Amino acid sequence: xxxxxxxxxxxxxxxxxxxxxxxxxxxxxxxxxxxxxxxxxxxxxxxxxxxxxxxxxxxxxxxxxxxxxxxxxxxxxxxxxxxxxxxxxxxxxxxxxxxxxxxxxxxxxxxxxxxxxxxxxxxxxxxxxxxxxxxxxxxxxxxxxxxxxxxxxxxxxxxxxxxxxxxxxxxxxxxxxxxxxxxxxxxxxxxxxxxxxxxxxxxxxxxxxxxxxxxxxxxxxxxxxxxxxxxxxxxxxxxxxxxxxxxxxxxxxxxxxxxxxxxxxxxxxxxxxxxxxxxxxxxxxxxxxxxxxxxxxxxxxxxxxxxxxxxxxxxxxxxxxxxxxxxxxxxxxxxxxxxxxxxxxxxxxxxxxxxxxxxxxxxxxxxxxxxxxxxxxxxxxxxxxxxxxxxxxxxxxxxxxxxxxxxxxxxxxxxxxxxxxxxxxxxxxxxxxxxxxxxxxxxxxxxxxxxxxxxxxxxxxxxxxxxxxxxxxxxxxxxxxxxxxxxxxxxxxxxxxxxxxxxxxxxxxxxxxxxxxxxxxxxxxxxxxxxxxxxxxxxxxxxxxxxxxxxxxxxxxxxxxxxxxxxxxxxxxxxxxxxxxxxxxxxxxxxxxxxxxxxxxxxxxxxxxxxxxxxxxxxxxxxxxxxxxxxxxxxxxxxxxxxxxxxxxxxxxxxxxxxxxxxxxxxxxxxxxxxxxxxxxxxxxxxxxxxxxxxxxxxxxxxxxxxxxx
Length: 710
Fold this sequence. Notes:
Blueprint: E1 2-10, H1 15-35, E2 42-47, E3 51-59, E4 66-74, H2 79-89, E5 98-101, E6 107-115, H3 120-133, E7 159-167, E8 174-175, E9 179-180, E10 183-184, E11 188-190, E12 199-201, H4 205-214, H5 221-238, E13 242-243, H6 247-254, E14 261-266, H7 276-287, E15 290-293, E16 300-308, H8 317-342, H9 354-364, E17 368-370, E18 374-375, H10 376-394, H11 398-407, H12 415-419, H13 426-434, H14 439-447, H15 462-481, H16 495-509, H17 515-525, H18 531-552, H19 557-564, H20 571-585, H21 588-611, H22 628-649, H23 653-661, H24 664-673, H25 681-699
Antiparallel strand pairs: 1-3, 1-7, 2-3, 4-6, 5-6, 7-8, 9-10, 11-12, 13-15, 14-16, 15-16, 17-18
Helix pairs in contact: 1-3, 5-6, 7-8, 10-11, 10-15, 11-14, 11-15, 13-14, 14-15, 15-16, 16-18, 17-18, 18-19, 19-20, 20-23, 21-24, 21-25, 22-23, 22-24, 22-25
């Protein structure tokens, strides 16, 4: 068995593209190998700011020989059919084919085609250039003398060298023979751009990894992240401080360096008057640096950590000082923005509080939310009205909800949010607190954007819930009203995220909302003519999003279909039904009843094709029941329908399921002893009506026809 080492060494690979590029390289190469019959033991890809590397272990030296049997025409078939068979099988004459006999005694030609496997080295030489030439970079460029040629090589940044070696551990590996864009594959790579830029000869992955380490390159991005995180925590601890961890920033800076060196910088303590999130956003956005805090008070410290790509001769003092100067300049801007936002706006000073002045500015500027949905000011009015309407449904004070909704977007025209959009909501809350707004109102201004992802916290305070729902529902219904729905993988307005946010807020707070009527009511505010149809479409979208959420929790999506088919739109009730149904179907009684339902459903489906849909929906007649099992099942059905109905009114879904379990024995006995399709047409009709009653009874809790296996 042999190993492949492939490295594509370029000028730069942007950090945002690195993870996907490594995954793409691994998939493209391994898929191409497997497609050609070359399986392997393991494959791993790596990426740095300059190189994309793939290591595949345990490849055979040759493809397996292939043997294919190709069936041809019958003996005595027309000449055209014979010639077509010979051509497709690659045979010169019928003498090279066999004659076989089928089970009916007929004879036909059979070609046995044997193809010897090619050397893996040759297969690699065939597939690698095509993969490199067609690599799926989001953006690519061409360069140099070859850039004028048709179909020239394009890469994310100029490609400088290709390492491609193949061979067993015990022998000298061979270079995979190919050339692309004037670059010939070889066994030469290069070390760190500044500290060890010399050429390095490599053989296979182990010595390649060792050589890169000696040349100040950490190949594995996970190891670079570990080094950065460990060194950041150590430096912070040495100063009596604590690192404010940032997973996104950690991945980004690990993609900017090949040899991470963590240094500490400092800024003037006077800048700590700025809100901590603004300081963090400033330092993160402009310098890609981590902030530190006092572990006792939780407040930010006037120090930060940066990640350099070199070991400086002065220990990094000049680098840290340079970053400190830039940070101080950026924080000076942030401090100016912060103070400006707290002062009056010249044109709106007569309107009182700073946030109210910003809201007036937002309205006056006529900032467009969407061309077909009007301005941000109009949207604020809609959210205010909706938040006031939702407030009593979620236990919130209506006036507080309306006030929070009124101010929720005001910080969009503040100086700080204009410079750092990621702190919108947070700054709105901060400014609201400074102008002595009610605490619930201030909290709702920040919380109304939540949740922004699957791991984000959801609003739990009633006022925050009302405004968060109003904001998201206005967005969803509005874009549905102008027919801007998500399609395929495209969702430019993040409507899937908004729907999942609504679902999480409702479920995790146990809110009892009737979504269909709520959607329709909001749709009318947008002038939608057929509000009921919009509500139906949007509810189906929510069902799909709920499936995603429940599947992530391990639930069965077919049970969701079974419950949604009842027309239910109360998400809390839906999930309760699903949980009860899931538990029920795992029992012996549940599985048996599902089987009985399936049998009854199949019979009804077949007979309704003859007699017409709905032909058996009348209640069965007692005087046409002649078998004992018919009487028992009819009585059991009447009792089960009554008990299940009462349980459902009390939202006791387990009780409703339990009522249905009493049908198991009567259903089994009915099918064992009674002939449904009697020769007597009256008996046949009555028995089919009994089965239709069984179907209706089961549909009280869920549409079992939607359940897998039903």
